[in-house]
């Protein structure tokens, strides 16, 4: 079942389940290659972006050259991932997939080796247009890919630059040399139907317009590009798509966290998913996604004021049990029309 109004945002959690290797273990292997094992003492408390900056700063050479060398080494460590049933089960539900993962496991799950780049314009460092096609599915690597290690979004400086690029695209436009002119998101003009008023140039357009299903992504607060887009999506006068965050847990119901608390404040629907193993969690998440796709077969196509006039659901109605039943209408608190960010 595929719905063009629904997009998947898939994080690294599903790859960890496939690898059966902890994320910190990969970083320890990376640090070992550069004789920096001492940097891993507090690895579980360090943001990945700052750990990479720290690793680069240890080198006596040019920072830029060291960064590229580290990214190439990091890319090689990720190439050992092979798709599992959960990849195929979740990815087969969508025609548009956004992923923070750098590898091509999603494409392999959909089409084996028969996938290809479909960039509107080449990018060496940033990833507004980094799209691949696999079995008729658009896969957007929002944080770069291992095919171009320099594009892999790892360091804090790179995150800041990516956010600047996204904000320019949404508010003013970015120059595309291949086209000879600027392109910008249709959300700049408050458009609801991008396909009529303007082309979908970037994954950012899908994020702002469509229903987004976030799976296997911890939404760390260093992911400043994604948090900014969630805020911008929330602030838009015309609300066309909801956001669902699938909070996975093994054997016991997941607890509320600072991340889920903030997500709920942004009208993101947090869907708890519990199973006996991480692989089973992702298979269970696929069932929940199917339920949500059936519940929202179209865009919302409503203004914030329309949504404010919708009767709020009761506390009991707002609870999502583990069977992932359909829910009633959702309610936005009143706010004034925003003209900028």
The percent of residues in helical segments reads 25-40%
Strand order of the largest sheet: 3-4-5-2-1-8-10-11
- In terms of DSSP E residues, the strand content is 5-15%
The coarse overall form would be globular
Radius of gyration: 20 Å
> How many strands, which pairing sense, and closed or not: the largest β-sheet?
8 strands, mixed
Taking pLDDT < 50 over at least 5 consecutive residues as the criterion, the unreliable ranges are 311-341
Class of secondary structure makeup: alpha/beta
Helix-strand pattern, N to C?
EHHHHHEHEEEHEEHHEHEEHEHEHH
DSSP, total strands: 12
By DSSP (H or I, 4+ residues per run), the number of helices equals: 14
**Whole-number average pLDDT?**
84
Number of domains: 2
**CA distance, first residue to last residue:** 36 Å
């Amino acid at each position: 079942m595929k719905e063009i109004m629904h997009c998947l945002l898939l994080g690294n959690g599903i790859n960890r389940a496939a690898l059966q290797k902890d994320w910190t273990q990969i970083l320890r292997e990376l640090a070992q290659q550069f004789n920096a094992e001492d940097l891993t003492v507090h690895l579980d408390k360090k943001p990945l972006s700052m750990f990479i900056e720290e690793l680069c700063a240890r080198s006596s050479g040019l920072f830029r050259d060291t960064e590229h060398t580290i990214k190439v080494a990091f890319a090689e460590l990720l190439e050992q991932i092979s798709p599992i049933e959960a990849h195929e089960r979740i990815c087969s539900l969508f025609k548009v997939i956004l992923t923070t993962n750098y590898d091509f496991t999603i494409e392999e799950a959909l089409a084996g080796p028969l996938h290809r780049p479909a960039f509107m314009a080449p990018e060496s460092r940033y990833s507004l247009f980094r799209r691949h096609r696999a079995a008729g599915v658009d896969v957007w690597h929002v944080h770069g890919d291992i095919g171009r290690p320099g594009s892999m979004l790892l360091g804090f400086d790179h995150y800041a630059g990516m956010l600047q690029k996204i904000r320019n695209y949404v508010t003013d436009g970015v120059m595309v040399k291949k086209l000879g002119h600027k392109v910008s998101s249709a959300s700049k003009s408050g458009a609801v139907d991008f396909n009529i008023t303007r082309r979908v140039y970037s994954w950012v357009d899908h994020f702002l317009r469509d229903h987004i299903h976030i799976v296997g992504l911890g939404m760390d607060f260093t992911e400043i590009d994604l948090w900014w887009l969630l805020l911008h999506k929330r602030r838009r006068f015309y609300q066309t798509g909801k956001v669902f965050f699938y909070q996975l847990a093994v054997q016991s119901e997941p607890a509320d966290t600072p991340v889920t608390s903030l997500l709920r404040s942004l009208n993101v629907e947090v869907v708890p998913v519990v199973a006996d193993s991480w692989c089973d969690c992702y298979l269970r998440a696929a069932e929940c996604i199917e339920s949500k796709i059936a519940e929202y077969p179209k865009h919302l196509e409503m203004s914030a004021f329309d949504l404010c006039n919708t009767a709020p659901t009761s506390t009991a109605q707002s609870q999502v049990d583990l069977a992932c039943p359909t829910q009633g209408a959702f309610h936005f608190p009143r706010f004034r029309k925003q003209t900028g960010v």
